[in-house]
Design goal:
This protein has helices at 38-42, 182-190; strands at residues 3-4, 10-12, 23-32, 49-57, 60-65, 77-79, 95-100, 110-117, 126-135, 140-146, 155-164, 167-177. With 193 residues, the protein is mainly beta.
Length: 193
């Protein structure tokens, strides 16, 4: 059963039948918003949104997984590859980041997921954008956060997973920001640790 998250909402990453999740996938999907008018359609560009995962320990950045660094140094987090045009909308994922929670080193206490418009278009030009958390073992969607509202921003701090006791929990952040890369977002991300 999928939980539709609202900004700031937290969910525990525990299987419904008990036990902890072992491998989760954060999926990102989007498509270009329909363009109106003849000239608008002629000048439309593809939108390249990029998903990133930033790994932290005690508030300090340790590693990042994104389209130019597809696997974390420890191998626990893996990006499945860059999609430069989107198109899945509310269907499948255009970009995915897989996290093997059991392999994440003990000193890593938070993983923050961001999305940014590498091509610089604002979210006003993006339609049906979402992020979702999937139990990679079963394929079951656990949570979905819809990136609604458009806006003149070029990035979004989507969600984070953080250690909670012996397990993990997910928090939907959903805060707009600006930047073409994860590096541009670091000051805004730090406020959510």
């Amino acid at each position: 059963m999928t939980v539709n998250l609202s900004k700031g909402q937290q969910i525990s990453l525990t299987k419904s039948g008990g036990g902890e999740l072992t491998v989760v996938r954060m999926g990102l999907g989007w498509k270009s918003a329909p363009r109106r008018g003849f000239l608008a359609r002629l000048t439309a560009r593809e939108i390249d949104l990029d998903a990133s995962a930033l790994l932290f320990a005690d508030g300090s950045p340790l590693d990042v997984v994104f389209f130019q660094h597809l696997t974390s140094d420890d191998g626990s987090v893996q990006h499945t590859g860059d999609n430069r045009v989107g198109g899945a909308g509310q269907g499948g994922d255009d970009e995915s980041i897989v996290v093997d929670l059991q392999r994440v080193p003990a000193h890593v206490d938070q993983i923050v997921f961001t999305v940014n418009s590498f091509t610089g278009q604002t979210f006003e030009e993006v339609d049906n954008a979402f992020c979702r958390l999937v139990d990679e073992t079963t394929g079951q969607e656990l949570a979905r956060y819809t990136l609604t509202g458009g806006g003149r921003h070029t990035a979004q701090i989507m969600a984070k997973v953080q250690r909670s006791g012996a397990g993990w929990q997910m928090t939907a952040i959903g805060v707009p920001s600006d930047g073409r890369t994860f590096q541009d977002l670091m000051p805004a991300v730090m406020a959510h640790l």
